[in-house]
TrEMBL record:
First-level EC class: hydrolase
Protein name: lysozyme
UniProt xrefs under Pfam families: Lys
Keywords assigned by UniProt, alphabetized: Antimicrobial, Bacteriolytic enzyme, Disulfide bond, Glycosidase, Hydrolase, Signal
Keyword rRNA processing recorded: no
GO MF: lysozyme activity
Protein family: Belongs to the glycosyl hydrolase 22 family.
UniProt xrefs under PANTHER family: LYSOZYME C
Signal sequence extent: 1-21
GO biological process terms on file: defense response to bacterium; killing of cells of another organism
Gene: LysA_1
Organism encoding this protein: Lygus hesperus (Western plant bug)
């Protein structure tokens, strides 16, 4: 009995254990984002947002918002829309946005940026800290950082627009709700919808 109880408690401890986040240095954030493909002319803005959103803490979880949702990780991405539970916009769990590896956080942040840019023209406006802190000159946030200029260290200079799904406008569809949720579309999706419309006309 005691052994069974120990096993149960160990399992609960594993489930409830906090994500292995870390507090990064501003130069570490900058160089990592650049290596992951962030456009060089935007890196200082992203570092600024990370500073004011989470103080560079990759495992940060914000207090409950007025709607009960929470914000997660380096960029404090909201779980109402973007990570599960309950959000599905980025197709990832919220715990994956709280770890040491910021690659999943960056990938999700790109989706948030792209969807917001399509709606309001400036993707950074998705973050409330952008206007008061990061809309002007942000060069000081990467001051003293030795950022590589080698093309080999950057996955793609156009990564901010790559692998970003096209937003679905209007009513709910078979693939999910409208913006701010976004989903990957390809020719097969459009072909399927085309066939459905043709069948309805018959």
């Amino acid at each position: 009995m005691r052994r069974s109880l120990t096993v149960v408690l160990a399992l609960w401890a594993t489930v409830l254990a906090p994500a292995l986040g870390r507090v990064m240095d501003h130069c570490d954030v900058a160089s990592t984002l650049l290596r992951l493909g962030a456009p060089r002319n935007q890196v200082s803005v992203w570092v600024c947002i990370a500073k004011w959103e989470s103080s560079y803490n990759t495992g940060a979880v914000g207090p409950p918002n007025s709607d009960g949702s929470r914000d997660h990780g380096l960029f404090q991405i909201n779980d109402r829309y973007w990570c599960s539970p309950p959000g599905t916009g980025c197709g990832v769990s919220c715990r994956s946005l709280e770890g040491d590896d910021i690659a999943p956080q960056w990938k999700c942040a790109k989706r948030v940026y792209k969807a917001t840019k399509l709606q309001v023209g400036n993707g950074f406006k998705a973050w409330t800290t952008y206007a008061p802190h990061c809309a002007g000159d942000t060069s000081s946030y990467v001051a003293g950082c030795r950022l590589s200029t080698s093309d080999d260290d950057v996955q793609s200079s156009n990564a901010i627009t790559q692998d970003i799904p096209v937003p679905v406008y209007g009513q709910w569809t078979a693939y999910g709700p409208p913006v701010p949720f976004v989903y990957p579309w390809n020719r097969s999706h459009f072909w399927t919808i085309h066939q459905i419309l043709l069948n309805k006309r018959k």
